[in-house]
Amino acid sequence: MTVMEQRGAYRPTPPPAWQPRTDPAPLLPDALPHRVLGTEAAERVDPELLRRLYAQLVRGRRYNAQATALTKQGRLAVYPSSTGQEACEVAAALVLEERDWLFPSYRDTLAAVARGLDPVQALTLLRGDWHTGYDPHEHRIAPLCTPLATQLPHAVGLAHAARLKGDDVVALALVGDGGTSEGDFHEALNFAAVWQAPVVFLVQNNGFAISVPLAKQTAAPSLAHKAVGYGMPGRLVDGNDAAAVHEVLSAAVAHARAGGGPTLVEAVTYRMEAHTNADDDKRYRGDSEVEAWRAHDPIALLEHELTERGLLDEAGMRAAREDAEAMAADLRERMNQDPALDPMDLFAHVYAQPTTQLLEQEAQLRAELDAEARHHEGGHESEGTAR
Amino acid sequence: MTTVAVKPATMAQALGRALRDAMADDPTVHVMGEDVGTLGGVFRVTDGLAKEFGEDRVTDTPLAEAGILGTAVGMAMYGLRPVVEMQFDAFAYPAFEQLISHVARMRNRTRGAMPLPITVRVPYGGGIGGVEHHSDSSEAYYIATPGLHVVTPATVADAYGLLRAAIASDDPVVFLEPKRLYWSKDTWNPDEPQAVDPIGRAVVRRHGRSATLITYGPSVPVCMEAAEAARAEGWDLEVVDLRSLVPFDDETVSASVRRTGRAVVVHESGGFGGPGGEIAARVTERCFHYLEAPVLRVAGFDIPYPPPMLERHHLPGVDRILDAVARLQWEAQS
């Protein structure tokens, strides 16, 4: 007998009781971005950490300037500057232990360098001599990722695998505001929360995805609010306040390491330069907006804090600038040397064992190179007879 | 050694056994995907694995193919060997960016420092009456992507051996499972399963002298049937089962065509831009002077996969193959 047939006996009941799986209140970000510098909270911060952050910010600013100059000299194909965002980059690098992993996007060269990667190795993607100029395992830095947000699920998988193996490793993944619209952002956050993976997502909200402003990117109250829908805490921080970014990321990393699962951190910052040297930012933003952010410069903020409290003097500032200048000079000199490239590298790393098809193509290229070499050696002799 | 009777087994059972043995042999092998755990997969290929190895190694993931493959990339970066299931051919498309932009090229972009030993299991092809998006033959997309190996078994024994080889490979392998052969049976000893040739070797399934049928996966049994039927017409057909599309076994294929002088490539996926065009070109380049007729293709039509009630008209069957074989009498025609 079906339910319809026994209608007389059937008594409709309310739907079974519903309960939310998680209390959303603790997951919600604060109304305003967390700040430390210029507040009483700054006095709790270890002065040595503030000095380290300062030195790295100055280096980072100089690095951005030098890399931008290298594009103008034709030494780099392109450079997406992180000028204005150095506090996020530096904090992301300094907050991690050696065993942890960093998953940078294409704009995060500076985070990789601040983590200890050779500046030249960090630039091979942008110079064009090889996609990734370093062994990711050596520094635990994934390759700089050009497609948007696709590195986020990698960070989740790596953190998950580490936990399965019993290692207390945390993965920190960097993404921009535009990247939060990608499907991989959603899938990564969802997997991370379901698996309670020890991973931290840092969104550097720098205001624009190339030219598209945040208002056209999302209708969410903030990007940090997106965390609640996945069941992880969302945190909002002043991305130009190096101490605040460091503090919020440290807490998120500690939370993840202790088995508390993932956190989404939105750092509110600003891209002071164009998307890359190929972009004309005058088309989509006015000078007054840029100037307003210039007054909230990450280096000036920290410098002010340090000098006010007598933690940094003129000699200290000079030392930081000299250190940065030495790094830039070394970078300039080494980037002005042509890299030694072996064309046979094209076939060396497609598969563990090259296919017979690739072996044939490799032989073809070798023959072409040999003919080219003979042509150069033979000069006049081979002129007109090469073919 | 205890001798166990050779008994009938299905391809699905052999695939499941391959996963089980790989997991037992290597603790870094992890199986993940939608429904692979408690349910044992919609085709029951992963049946029993979650019970034996636990949820940490046989993981029911959220329903998100890019997330499944993307997290597998991170797991492989940390030293695991993920085997991911895509459930159905057309469901794999959301994962294409991860596959093409990361899985296929991570070894290359890191100059060998970061190989990704991932096996992507994709049930593919039609003939089971599946509704839309459940019957695509997507192999052309995979073989056009450098950095991937692409293999597909046609027999129960190959299903076991090739899957073991795929999981053991240090490179990513797209493992295409012909779903209409899941329930095909063969006498096979699950207690002493045999390894197969390394990935990249084709095999001659039937020897013949008049022409070669070059095929793979779900079309192999169809070609075997066509070869039997062709005997009545006086044709003695050779059938080459490629087993691996990438790497491609030029040697076995060319040797066969040089013996027979005639060739037909048979596959379900569309002919235009399909694997058959590449195979015909390779055969022509290598065997031109041995050929008595152009290399022909018998493929699915160049249409989106048809609704199930019409699919029999789309799938290359024995008659269409025999028609092509008849057209190989080139001299008589021209």
TrEMBL record, chain A:
<dbReference type="Pfam" id="PF00676">
    <property type="entry name" value="E1_dh"/>
</dbReference>
<dbReference type="InterPro" id="IPR017596">
    <property type="entry name" value="PdhA/BkdA"/>
</dbReference>
<feature type="domain" description="Dehydrogenase E1 component">
    <location>
        <begin position="64"/>
        <end position="342"/>
    </location>
</feature>
<protein>
    <submittedName>
        <fullName>Pyruvate dehydrogenase (Acetyl-transferring) E1 component subunit alpha</fullName>
    </submittedName>
</protein>
<keyword id="KW-0560">Oxidoreductase</keyword>
<feature type="region of interest" description="Disordered">
    <location>
        <begin position="1"/>
        <end position="25"/>
    </location>
</feature>
<dbReference type="GO" id="GO:0016624">
    <property type="term" value="F:oxidoreductase activity, acting on the aldehyde or oxo group of donors, disulfide as acceptor"/>
</dbReference>
<dbReference type="InterPro" id="IPR050771">
    <property type="entry name" value="Alpha-ketoacid_DH_E1_comp"/>
</dbReference>
<dbReference type="InterPro" id="IPR029061">
    <property type="entry name" value="THDP-binding"/>
</dbReference>
<dbReference type="InterPro" id="IPR001017">
    <property type="entry name" value="DH_E1"/>
</dbReference>
<dbReference type="GO" id="GO:0009083">
    <property type="term" value="P:branched-chain amino acid catabolic process"/>
</dbReference>
<keyword id="KW-0670">Pyruvate</keyword>
<keyword id="KW-0786">Thiamine pyrophosphate</keyword>
<dbReference type="GO" id="GO:0000287">
    <property type="term" value="F:magnesium ion binding"/>
</dbReference>
From TrEMBL, chain B:
<dbReference type="InterPro" id="IPR005475">
    <property type="entry name" value="Transketolase-like_Pyr-bd"/>
</dbReference>
<dbReference type="Pfam" id="PF02780">
    <property type="entry name" value="Transketolase_C"/>
</dbReference>
<keyword id="KW-0560">Oxidoreductase</keyword>
<dbReference type="GO" id="GO:0000287">
    <property type="term" value="F:magnesium ion binding"/>
</dbReference>
<protein>
    <submittedName>
        <fullName>Alpha-ketoacid dehydrogenase subunit beta</fullName>
    </submittedName>
</protein>
<dbReference type="InterPro" id="IPR033248">
    <property type="entry name" value="Transketolase_C"/>
</dbReference>
<dbReference type="InterPro" id="IPR029061">
    <property type="entry name" value="THDP-binding"/>
</dbReference>
<dbReference type="GO" id="GO:0016491">
    <property type="term" value="F:oxidoreductase activity"/>
</dbReference>
<dbReference type="Pfam" id="PF02779">
    <property type="entry name" value="Transket_pyr"/>
</dbReference>
<dbReference type="InterPro" id="IPR009014">
    <property type="entry name" value="Transketo_C/PFOR_II"/>
</dbReference>
<keyword id="KW-0786">Thiamine pyrophosphate</keyword>
<feature type="domain" description="Transketolase-like pyrimidine-binding">
    <location>
        <begin position="9"/>
        <end position="184"/>
    </location>
</feature>
